[in-house]
């Protein structure tokens, strides 16, 4: 995934998106090309190593694919209407056009298959406890039926090799323009609120730091020019 410098996320922030989402596209390559299945997962930390644990139905041939895998996790995302953007100015180099702001994380690694009942039971128990506040095996479903489900699935564990996060949130605009755009998005569509919040929390500080760097560079250049002695006239 291409990530411009202003859109790059730290590993900890990217992993937080993965943990909060709890699901993503599990992508592999098989004999007939690329395969993808949307799956829920647990994040398992063992020291410095991170694993994603999920499962597939046994009739899904993807678990027989090559071990190299990509998991795409989608964070908050929202359309930015052209009407949300500030008016164009005479000095800008690029037009203000409708776009899409989003947070996404790509996780690369290698997966192994677990087909023993103990691993699958532990995985499903942890998954249920992660997402369900009340439903429990034995209370709301019989152990016999759950055992039937275990036999019909295979466990998949991804050993994470790389996590790359991208937060495209309008960092190319000025802090004032970002704030105005975020407010317009929020007023137009309440569903855009989470992205508007991130624009204010992430994009505005980044744009402010960029302006400070530019101002500092211009100030140093001005001071250096003023300190230069006059050149002799031939």
From TrEMBL:
Keyword Protease assigned: yes
Signal sequence bounds: none
Which GO biological-process labels does this protein carry?
proteolysis
Q: Which domain of life is it from?
A: Bacteria
**Which residue ranges are recorded for the region named Disordered?**
213-234
* Pfam families xref list: FMN_bind_2
Molecular function (Gene Ontology), one example: peptidase activity
Record keywords: Hydrolase, Protease
- The name this protein carries in UniProt is Protease synthase and sporulation protein PAI 2
State the organism's lineage. Bacteria, Bacillati, Actinomycetota, Actinomycetes, Actinomycetales
Underlying gene: paiB
